[in-house]
Design goal:
Helix content: 55-70%
Number of helices: 12
Strand content: 5-15%
Order of helices and strands: HHHHHHHHHHEHEEHEE
Strand order of the largest sheet: 1-2-3-5-4
Structural class: alpha+beta
Largest sheet: 5 strands, mixed
Shape: rod-shaped
Radius of gyration: 47 Å
Number of strands: 5
Number of domains: 2
Distance between the termini: 54 Å
């Protein structure tokens, strides 16, 4: 289990240079033991040096207590241990000092140099001590024992703490690196989760906007024609029963077409609900990607209108009493589904606006197939009777032109609309043939 950098900073509650109180207690205990050891070893040192015993004890106590600052100044501890090696004291301080030095993040050349000095000093002192013992007759072994004892003793007091310190230091640095990497990964995962949530929200908004445009086109055009035919049916029901029957059949056909397109929109909504149900069992990033994929997949799978149905669309407006003329220029060829659907919807919404705001006006629908684009224009003349625009009492939400512009711009096209000099209205759009 890892901790974050903030938690480690909050955990630094020890006194002075210690990170924790337990570290201070450990170093204090080691310094106390080292001071006692050096103080005891100062007695024979004082006798050999010909100085008062009390001076040797005090010197040993002071030298041994240097181990208290091993974490703050490890180099000083090792140097003191090397300095008192000729006095044959400070063995614990030398071992602990070398271990602490090896665990620190110091240049390797410094660690090797100090370790070599400690090894050499211990070897010389041991060599001299063993020779003195053999000269006094305390040891009766051969001459081979002098170098063997000095080398073995120096290596035993230097190599184990040095190697252990290098291992612990490397492990400590590795753990710190892993903690930093874990913190970095946690931040990256949090950032990815936030981006996934933003992407999911963007996908939902885009899908809601698309569905709103589709619903507006379906309801506005089909229902507008149904209202126009219903008004005509009411006017000719008694005068011309045959025409009334035809209008009633047209109203039924348009209603069925409207229901079919509305059913397709409901299918897209159900696909979005399936993605929402997955949010409870999948990670947020996967849900965000699924939401975006489902939105695009639902848009692709939904069968929309195409340009081949444009004549039927114009014919429906003509049957509703609109004087409409359709002209097609260039070589007819298939386009991407979204291009054909957008072109169809632009013409459909423009005709719906003519029904709403200029009923009875002469209307021209022009479609041009060009090399790298497809252009369409719907232009109507001024209505013959200004009051006829509201004869069928068709409501207007003001979103038709906005929806057309959004559709065209989303495909990288250009959309222009506005009144003409003659008093009519013109809608023009150019869409790249992707």
């Amino acid at each position: 289990m890892t901790t974050t950098g903030e938690e480690r900073t909050m955990g630094l509650t020890g006194p002075w240079w210690w990170a924790r109180w337990r570290s201070a207690v450990l170093d204090g205990s080691l310094a106390l033991v080292s001071a006692v050891e050096c103080g005891a070893e100062g007695i024979p040192f004082a006798r050999d040096a010909g100085i008062p015993v009390s001076v040797g004890i005090v010197f040993g106590l002071i030298a041994g207590s240097v181990l208290l600052v091993r974490r703050k100044w490890p180099i000083a501890v090792v140097l003191v241990a090397i300095a008192i090696t000729p006095a044959q004291m400070g063995f614990l301080m030398g071992i602990v000092g070398l271990y602490t030095l090896a665990t620190c993040e110091l240049p390797r050349r410094i660690i090797v140099a100090l370790a070599g000095m400690s090894l050499l000093g211990t070897m010389i002192v041991t060599l001299v001590r063993v020779r003195q013992d053999m000269a006094r007759g305390d040891l009766t072994l051969g001459d081979w024992f002098v170098p063997f004892a000095s080398i073995t003793t120096s290596l035993g007091l230097t190599a184990p703490p040095l190697l252990l310190g290098l291992y612990v230091g490397a492990r400590r640095r590795l753990m710190e690196s892993l903690r930093e990497r874990a913190d970095s990964l946690e931040r990256e995962l949090q950032l990815l989760a936030e981006r996934a949530e933003e992407r999911a929200e963007w996908a939902r908004n885009e899908e809601r906007t698309r569905i709103a445009r589709e619903m507006h086109d379906v309801v506005a055009h089909r229902v507008s024609l149904m209202v126009v035919h219903a008004a005509a049916l009411q006017a000719v029901a008694r005068k011309d029963p045959e025409k009334a029957v035809r209008n009633a059949a047209l109203v039924g056909d348009m209603g069925r077409q409207a229901l079919t397109e509305l059913r397709e929109m409901l299918g897209v909504l159900r696909a979005g609900e399936d993605v929402g149900r997955r949010a409870a069992s999948e990670p947020l990033a996967a849900v965000g990607v699924a939401a975006a994929d489902a939105a695009s997949r639902a848009a692709d799978e939904a069968e929309g209108p195409c340009l081949s149905e444009l004549e039927e669309l114009v014919g429906q407006s003509a049957e509703a009493g609109m004087a409409v003329d359709l002209s097609v220029e260039g070589e007819v060829r298939p386009y991407a589904a979204e291009v054909e659907q957008t072109a169809y919807r632009v013409v459909q919404e423009a005709l719906t606006n003519v029904h709403k705001h200029a009923a009875g006006a002469k209307t021209y629908v022009r479609l041009a197939h060009r090399g790298a684009e497809i252009a369409m224009q719907v232009e109507n003349e001024p209505p013959p009777e200004p009051a006829s625009a509201s004869a069928a009492r068709l409501p207007s939400g003001g979103n038709g032109l906005l929806g057309m512009r959004e559709r065209v711009v989303a495909l990288g096209g250009v959309f222009v609309s506005g009144p003409t000099d003659a008093g009519g209205f013109r809608v023009s759009a150019v869409i790249p043939a992707v």
